[in-house]
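mind reviewing these tokens:
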Amino acid sequence: MKSGDGYVYIIGAGPGDPELLTVKAERVLHEADVILYDNLVSAELVGQFDALKIYTGKRKDKHHFEQDAINEEIVFHARQGRKVARLKGGDPYVFGRGGEEIAFLRKHGVEYEIIPGITAAQGASAYSEIPLTIRHISSSVAFCTGHPLDKIHVPDADTIVYYMVASSASEVAKALIKKGKEEQTKVAIVQNATRYNQKIFAGTLGELKNKDKKVVSPALLVLGENVTEFIEDYWFAKKKRVLIAGKSSEKYETGEYVIVRYPCIDSGQIDAGNIFKKVDDSTAEMMLLFVDKYAVRYFFNYLFENSIDIRDFPNTAFCPAGRSTTSELLKHGVLPDLCLDACTPEKIITEMAELGITGETILIPGSDSADKNLVNELTALKNNAVLLDVSVQSSFGQGERIDLDCIDEICFSSPSCVRSFKEHYAAIPDRITVTAADAQTEAEYKVLFGSQA
């Protein structure tokens, strides 16, 4: 490797569920300077990391970047001495073109490492309860692609998984029958495997051959006698789908729900000038109140970018609200002086009043549309409450549109998130339960959607 070169990680992001990312991949992505990610990598997953993000999405006949351009982009950033994460859906070496990218890196003398991911076949198997192998039924499995149709493979395996069949599921069935497979052979189409909107069609090759309903990408086909072994009552279908608009609500983080996130906080930052400019004396006693993990993240990013040392403020008490916020603060090597159990503005006020917190200078790092009611209520407790704009609040306009037909409940964490959601979704189906984090959010929901949360 030439002097000054960076390092490249070819990383598998898994099949769709962001929590299926490996521990090693998560660590590297937190350390990365640049993340180049594909279409099948969710915005929710990428949004957890602070690196420069470059979308290189590719779908059939619709390439944001051609493969050659992706290869060049990876090498360009490595040549700048950066740590580059090439993030790919599933596993890089299972129909992920990882081999091509590695060959290009070798050719240009760039050092690299490969971090495997859970491939789509494994994810679909686990989240639909279609075992790829099962004693006495299936002792072999093969992975194939569903195209080109005139060259489709039919290996001698008990279970065959065909990737990339969304645009040609019926044609694949016809091709398999033409190749000698019986029309009564059991099959399943799994689309959006491991994601909140996962759907399954289970039947036979003959039924699939005549199926005219469009299959949504990404989708794969599983063929074998093991298909209907457990599929009728599979575990993932029983979970309630909850859309959280804004910051997380800890009551949903119990494993009982499939959480879909609609983040209302953009990943950018704004130049807030001297974040302590409203405080006359930096040595004065004050409290930093972090209401969510994003506030912690952007606050410390700002300090780093502006060469500000937090040790310059020795009389500052750090106060995170909620477990996820506390966890984020600990990642930055800071032990909280006071941890609040509360996660909403109303509950924060109640808890601080119960603790007798008054007469304090309280700095609240947040967004440019932070809940000003929190400031007003803290001021009513005779505190000097000051908002610090260290992140950007914005509508979340990137990524795919959320399929509300697959959502059971929506939880709004702030009035601004209700407004953001309204910009993209004119109405919410009546069957969906809607909850609000506090009275202000509930009032905003009632105004914009015309009903009571």
User: Anything to note?
Assistant: Residues 266-274, 278-282, 392-398 have pLDDT under 50 and may be disordered. The CA atoms of residues 150 and 408 lie 42 Å apart. Residues 7-116 form a domain with the Cobalt-precorrin-4 Transmethylase; domain 1 fold (CATH 3.40.1010.10).
